[in-house]
Write a structure and sequence with these properties.
About 65% of the residues lie in helices and about 0% in strands. It contains seven helices and no strands. Helix 2 runs antiparallel to helix 3, helix 3 (about 60-85) packs antiparallel against helix 5 and helix 5 (about 95-110) runs antiparallel to helix 6. It is elongated and about 60 Å long. The N and C termini lie far apart (about 55 Å).
Length: about 180
């Protein structure tokens, strides 16, 4: 067995399936729903980063201030990545939801048993929104190919994937056409 040199080995980026997947995710990123979710996620991240100063708990809890700042910047950067290169970043959409969950529990974890009420309300609402937007972003990518009207070439929507486009004609009158 001879080893292939790097010049002989095809790059994975050139594989037709990878190109098709990236094109599919790029089409998903261009939908109005995805653009709305990306924009709301960006705004949520920016608000989360500046929320300690908006709500006013910077001096009371410096640990929560730092947590919100770093979490907010991370969410905003993720949203920018999803908006500009969803085909390459769709696999980490779940991170936004995890940061949202962290934001919800952070007042108790970072501050201990007595967090400030304004910090709690701010983090629970912002974290829940971040969690929700992260889940929506992940679901948009997952259901991109399963929408009604989209299917693989050569298949019929009322037949299994193994049956070709002419299978209904070959099988007889009502078979494969949704009629009993």
């Amino acid at each position: 067995m001879t080893a292939q040199t790097p010049a002989q080995t095809p790059a994975i980026e050139e594989h037709p399936d990878i190109a098709a997947l990236r094109a599919r995710y790029d089409r998903v990123a261009e939908t109005p729903t995805a653009q709305l979710v990306d924009g709301l996620t960006l705004l949520t991240g920016l608000y989360l980063a500046m929320s300690p100063w908006v709500v006013g708990f910077t001096s009371d809890s410096p640990g929560l201030t730092a947590s919100n700042l770093f979490s907010g910047v991370a969410v905003a950067l993720l949203a920018l990545g999803f908006a500009s290169a969803y085909g390459r970043t769709h696999g980490i959409t779940w991170v936004t939801a995890v940061i949202g969950a962290w934001t919800i529990i952070a007042p108790w974890v970072v501050n201990g048993a007595t967090p400030d009420n304004s910090a709690i309300a701010n983090n629970v609402i912002t974290g829940a929104l971040c969690l929700l937007l992260g889940l929506v972003m992940a679901s948009v990518g997952m259901r991109a190919g399963t929408r009604r009207g989209t299917r693989r070439p050569g298949t019929r929507p009322d037949m299994g994937p193994d049956m070709g486009p002419d299978m209904g004609r070959e099988m007889g009158s009502g078979m494969g056409r949704g009629r009993p």
